[in-house]
Amino acid sequence: MLNTFTVDKLSEIVNSDMKEAVSKFEENHFQWVKTDKNSFSFWYPYVKASGVPSPESIVIQRFVDFWTLIEPMHYRKFVGLLEKETKNLDKLAQMIHLAASQLGFPAFLRNGHGSNKHDFSNSCLLLDDPTDVKNKVFSTIDFIFGTDRVHSMHEWVVREYIEPDTELTAPHFGDMPLRKERRYFILNGKVIGHSEYWIEEALEGQGINPEVLKAINQETEEEVELLTGYAEAIGSKLNGFWSIDFMWGRGQWWCIDMATGESSWVHPRIKGDVYKALAD
Q: What is the pTM of this model?
Protein backbone atom coordinates (compact mmCIF):
# COMPACT_ATOMS: atom_id res chain seq x y z
CA MET A 1 0.00 0.00 0.00
CA LEU A 2 1.30 3.45 -0.86
CA ASN A 3 2.41 5.74 1.94
CA THR A 4 0.31 8.66 0.74
CA PHE A 5 -0.33 12.13 2.06
CA THR A 6 -3.95 12.95 1.30
CA VAL A 7 -5.51 16.38 1.48
CA ASP A 8 -7.46 15.45 4.61
CA LYS A 9 -4.26 14.50 6.43
CA LEU A 10 -2.41 17.65 5.42
CA SER A 11 -5.17 20.24 5.44
CA GLU A 12 -4.67 21.12 9.11
CA ILE A 13 -1.00 21.73 8.48
CA VAL A 14 -1.23 23.73 5.26
CA ASN A 15 -4.63 25.33 5.99
CA SER A 16 -6.02 24.16 2.66
CA ASP A 17 -9.07 25.96 1.34
CA MET A 18 -9.18 23.86 -1.84
CA LYS A 19 -11.51 21.10 -0.66
CA GLU A 20 -14.01 21.59 -3.48
CA ALA A 21 -11.33 20.47 -5.89
CA VAL A 22 -10.30 17.45 -3.87
CA SER A 23 -12.90 14.83 -4.73
CA LYS A 24 -12.86 15.63 -8.45
CA PHE A 25 -9.09 15.59 -8.61
CA GLU A 26 -8.65 12.38 -6.64
CA GLU A 27 -11.10 10.61 -8.96
CA ASN A 28 -9.22 11.82 -12.03
CA HIS A 29 -5.84 11.09 -10.47
CA PHE A 30 -6.50 7.46 -9.64
CA GLN A 31 -8.13 6.84 -13.01
CA TRP A 32 -4.97 8.19 -14.62
CA VAL A 33 -2.69 6.06 -12.43
CA LYS A 34 -4.55 2.90 -13.41
CA THR A 35 -3.70 3.46 -17.07
CA ASP A 36 -0.24 5.06 -16.80
CA LYS A 37 2.16 2.20 -16.14
CA ASN A 38 5.15 4.54 -15.96
CA SER A 39 3.59 6.36 -13.01
CA PHE A 40 5.38 5.80 -9.69
CA SER A 41 2.02 5.07 -8.07
CA PHE A 42 1.45 2.23 -10.53
CA TRP A 43 4.66 0.24 -10.18
CA TYR A 44 5.91 1.08 -6.66
CA PRO A 45 3.32 -1.09 -4.83
CA TYR A 46 4.58 -4.09 -6.81
CA VAL A 47 8.14 -3.42 -5.69
CA LYS A 48 7.03 -3.17 -2.06
CA ALA A 49 4.99 -6.35 -2.35
CA SER A 50 8.00 -8.25 -3.70
CA GLY A 51 10.11 -7.54 -0.62
CA VAL A 52 13.00 -6.22 -2.73
CA PRO A 53 14.79 -3.36 -0.90
CA SER A 54 13.64 0.07 -2.04
CA PRO A 55 13.91 3.54 -0.50
CA GLU A 56 11.05 4.52 1.79
CA SER A 57 8.75 6.87 -0.12
CA ILE A 58 5.87 9.26 0.48
CA VAL A 59 3.59 10.11 -2.43
CA ILE A 60 1.95 13.52 -2.44
CA GLN A 61 -1.13 13.68 -4.59
CA ARG A 62 -1.31 17.17 -6.04
CA PHE A 63 -4.95 18.21 -5.92
CA VAL A 64 -4.73 21.58 -7.70
CA ASP A 65 -4.70 20.56 -11.34
CA PHE A 66 -4.72 23.88 -13.15
CA TRP A 67 -1.82 22.79 -15.33
CA THR A 68 -3.77 19.92 -16.88
CA LEU A 69 -5.47 22.53 -19.06
CA ILE A 70 -2.15 23.85 -20.32
CA GLU A 71 -0.37 22.33 -23.29
CA PRO A 72 3.37 21.88 -22.72
CA MET A 73 4.33 24.46 -25.33
CA HIS A 74 2.22 27.18 -23.72
CA TYR A 75 4.97 28.12 -21.34
CA ARG A 76 4.18 31.83 -21.25
CA LYS A 77 0.61 31.06 -20.28
CA PHE A 78 1.91 28.82 -17.51
CA VAL A 79 4.19 31.53 -16.15
CA GLY A 80 1.21 33.89 -16.05
CA LEU A 81 -0.82 31.38 -14.09
CA LEU A 82 2.02 30.87 -11.64
CA GLU A 83 1.44 34.37 -10.30
CA LYS A 84 -2.15 33.42 -9.44
CA GLU A 85 -1.19 30.02 -8.09
CA THR A 86 1.67 31.06 -5.81
CA LYS A 87 -0.27 30.15 -2.67
CA ASN A 88 -1.09 26.71 -4.03
CA LEU A 89 2.53 26.06 -4.92
CA ASP A 90 3.56 27.25 -1.48
CA LYS A 91 1.26 24.60 -0.04
CA LEU A 92 2.79 21.96 -2.28
CA ALA A 93 6.26 22.96 -1.08
CA GLN A 94 5.03 22.75 2.52
CA MET A 95 3.72 19.25 1.89
CA ILE A 96 7.00 18.17 0.38
CA HIS A 97 9.00 19.66 3.27
CA LEU A 98 6.74 17.89 5.76
CA ALA A 99 7.15 14.56 3.97
CA ALA A 100 10.91 14.99 3.88
CA SER A 101 10.99 15.79 7.59
CA GLN A 102 9.24 12.48 8.29
CA LEU A 103 11.79 10.52 6.25
CA GLY A 104 14.77 12.56 7.42
CA PHE A 105 16.99 15.09 5.69
CA PRO A 106 18.50 15.08 3.21
CA ALA A 107 15.71 13.51 1.17
CA PHE A 108 15.24 12.89 -2.54
CA LEU A 109 12.59 14.56 -4.72
CA ARG A 110 11.04 13.20 -7.89
CA ASN A 111 7.67 13.32 -9.61
CA GLY A 112 5.46 10.59 -10.98
CA HIS A 113 7.69 9.87 -13.97
CA GLY A 114 11.19 10.60 -12.76
CA SER A 115 13.62 13.12 -11.35
CA ASN A 116 15.71 15.96 -12.69
CA LYS A 117 18.85 14.03 -11.76
CA HIS A 118 20.96 15.83 -14.35
CA ASP A 119 20.60 18.92 -12.15
CA PHE A 120 20.91 16.94 -8.97
CA SER A 121 21.89 19.47 -6.32
CA ASN A 122 19.43 22.09 -7.63
CA SER A 123 16.42 19.79 -8.04
CA CYS A 124 16.64 16.45 -6.25
CA LEU A 125 18.47 16.77 -2.95
CA LEU A 126 16.13 18.26 -0.34
CA LEU A 127 17.62 20.03 2.66
CA ASP A 128 15.88 21.05 5.89
CA ASP A 129 15.09 24.53 4.60
CA PRO A 130 11.60 25.50 3.33
CA THR A 131 13.09 27.98 0.86
CA ASP A 132 15.44 25.32 -0.49
CA VAL A 133 12.53 22.92 -0.92
CA LYS A 134 10.41 25.52 -2.72
CA ASN A 135 13.27 26.39 -5.09
CA LYS A 136 13.74 22.73 -5.95
CA VAL A 137 10.02 22.28 -6.61
CA PHE A 138 10.18 25.20 -9.08
CA SER A 139 13.33 23.78 -10.65
CA THR A 140 11.62 20.43 -11.13
CA ILE A 141 8.54 22.08 -12.65
CA ASP A 142 10.79 23.94 -15.06
CA PHE A 143 12.44 20.64 -16.02
CA ILE A 144 9.11 18.90 -16.55
CA PHE A 145 7.94 21.61 -18.91
CA GLY A 146 10.96 20.86 -21.08
CA THR A 147 9.72 17.27 -21.50
CA ASP A 148 6.49 15.61 -22.60
CA ARG A 149 5.63 14.67 -19.01
CA VAL A 150 3.50 17.58 -17.86
CA HIS A 151 0.84 15.19 -16.57
CA SER A 152 3.43 13.72 -14.18
CA MET A 153 3.08 16.81 -11.98
CA HIS A 154 -0.10 15.23 -10.64
CA GLU A 155 2.07 13.38 -8.15
CA TRP A 156 5.24 14.20 -6.29
CA VAL A 157 7.37 11.66 -4.48
CA VAL A 158 9.68 12.28 -1.55
CA ARG A 159 12.09 9.41 -1.02
CA GLU A 160 14.59 8.29 1.54
CA TYR A 161 18.02 9.42 0.39
CA ILE A 162 20.53 6.60 0.04
CA GLU A 163 23.93 8.12 0.72
CA PRO A 164 26.63 7.43 -1.86
CA ASP A 165 29.50 5.14 -0.94
CA THR A 166 31.79 7.03 -3.31
CA GLU A 167 32.97 10.61 -3.68
CA LEU A 168 32.76 10.38 -7.46
CA THR A 169 30.37 12.96 -8.92
CA ALA A 170 29.31 14.36 -12.30
CA PRO A 171 29.96 18.12 -12.00
CA HIS A 172 27.90 19.08 -15.06
CA PHE A 173 24.94 17.15 -13.63
CA GLY A 174 24.76 19.27 -10.48
CA ASP A 175 27.40 17.16 -8.71
CA MET A 176 25.23 14.09 -9.03
CA PRO A 177 26.88 11.16 -7.20
CA LEU A 178 27.99 8.39 -9.55
CA ARG A 179 27.33 4.96 -8.10
CA LYS A 180 27.00 1.40 -9.21
CA GLU A 181 23.71 1.30 -11.09
CA ARG A 182 22.23 -1.46 -13.21
CA ARG A 183 19.27 -1.83 -15.55
CA TYR A 184 17.46 -5.14 -15.91
CA PHE A 185 14.81 -5.97 -18.49
CA ILE A 186 12.08 -8.47 -17.75
CA LEU A 187 9.47 -9.99 -20.02
CA ASN A 188 6.53 -11.70 -18.34
CA GLY A 189 8.52 -12.15 -15.16
CA LYS A 190 11.81 -13.38 -16.64
CA VAL A 191 15.05 -11.46 -17.10
CA ILE A 192 15.95 -11.07 -20.78
CA GLY A 193 18.88 -8.67 -20.45
CA HIS A 194 20.87 -6.57 -18.03
CA SER A 195 23.64 -3.99 -18.17
CA GLU A 196 25.37 -1.17 -16.37
CA TYR A 197 23.42 2.09 -16.36
CA TRP A 198 26.10 4.75 -16.80
CA ILE A 199 28.09 4.47 -19.99
CA GLU A 200 31.12 6.56 -20.91
CA GLU A 201 29.29 8.44 -23.69
CA ALA A 202 26.64 9.69 -21.26
CA LEU A 203 29.34 11.20 -19.03
CA GLU A 204 31.45 12.81 -21.72
CA GLY A 205 33.09 16.03 -20.54
CA GLN A 206 32.54 15.24 -16.84
CA GLY A 207 36.18 14.52 -16.14
CA ILE A 208 35.47 10.93 -15.11
CA ASN A 209 38.44 8.58 -15.27
CA PRO A 210 37.41 5.80 -17.69
CA GLU A 211 39.14 3.17 -15.57
CA VAL A 212 37.21 4.26 -12.47
CA LEU A 213 33.94 4.11 -14.42
CA LYS A 214 34.89 0.69 -15.78
CA ALA A 215 35.37 -0.58 -12.23
CA ILE A 216 31.98 0.80 -11.16
CA ASN A 217 30.33 -0.83 -14.15
CA GLN A 218 31.88 -4.27 -13.65
CA GLU A 219 29.11 -6.80 -13.03
CA THR A 220 29.98 -9.82 -10.89
CA GLU A 221 28.41 -13.27 -10.99
CA GLU A 222 27.17 -12.87 -7.42
CA GLU A 223 25.60 -9.51 -8.25
CA VAL A 224 23.91 -10.83 -11.39
CA GLU A 225 22.47 -13.79 -9.49
CA LEU A 226 21.09 -11.52 -6.77
CA LEU A 227 19.64 -8.86 -9.08
CA THR A 228 18.16 -11.46 -11.40
CA GLY A 229 16.31 -12.83 -8.38
CA TYR A 230 15.20 -9.35 -7.38
CA ALA A 231 14.02 -8.48 -10.88
CA GLU A 232 12.09 -11.71 -11.26
CA ALA A 233 10.54 -11.33 -7.80
CA ILE A 234 9.16 -7.97 -8.92
CA GLY A 235 8.29 -9.38 -12.34
CA SER A 236 6.29 -12.20 -10.80
CA LYS A 237 3.73 -9.53 -9.89
CA LEU A 238 3.65 -7.92 -13.33
CA ASN A 239 3.11 -9.09 -16.88
CA GLY A 240 4.68 -7.49 -19.91
CA PHE A 241 7.97 -5.83 -20.80
CA TRP A 242 9.64 -3.73 -18.10
CA SER A 243 12.93 -2.11 -17.16
CA ILE A 244 14.01 -2.16 -13.51
CA ASP A 245 16.84 0.00 -12.19
CA PHE A 246 18.98 -0.93 -9.21
CA MET A 247 21.49 1.17 -7.26
CA TRP A 248 24.19 0.20 -4.77
CA GLY A 249 24.31 2.00 -1.42
CA ARG A 250 24.67 1.28 2.31
CA GLY A 251 26.19 -2.08 1.44
CA GLN A 252 23.26 -3.44 -0.57
CA TRP A 253 21.29 -3.12 -3.80
CA TRP A 254 18.10 -1.06 -3.97
CA CYS A 255 15.35 -0.97 -6.59
CA ILE A 256 15.06 2.73 -7.42
CA ASP A 257 13.01 2.98 -10.60
CA MET A 258 10.88 1.16 -13.15
CA ALA A 259 9.31 1.88 -16.51
CA THR A 260 7.75 0.05 -19.39
CA GLY A 261 10.42 -1.50 -21.57
CA GLU A 262 9.13 0.29 -24.65
CA SER A 263 9.89 3.67 -23.07
CA SER A 264 13.31 2.68 -21.64
CA TRP A 265 16.82 3.15 -22.95
CA VAL A 266 18.52 -0.14 -23.85
CA HIS A 267 22.30 -0.47 -23.68
CA PRO A 268 23.64 -1.12 -27.21
CA ARG A 269 25.50 -4.18 -25.93
CA ILE A 270 22.28 -6.01 -25.01
CA LYS A 271 19.89 -4.67 -27.65
CA GLY A 272 20.19 -7.81 -29.76
CA ASP A 273 19.34 -10.16 -26.89
CA VAL A 274 16.45 -8.00 -25.67
CA TYR A 275 14.85 -7.53 -29.07
CA LYS A 276 15.32 -11.21 -29.92
CA ALA A 277 13.52 -12.20 -26.73
CA LEU A 278 10.68 -9.83 -27.61
CA ALA A 279 10.40 -11.32 -31.08
CA ASP A 280 10.38 -14.96 -29.94
A: 0.81
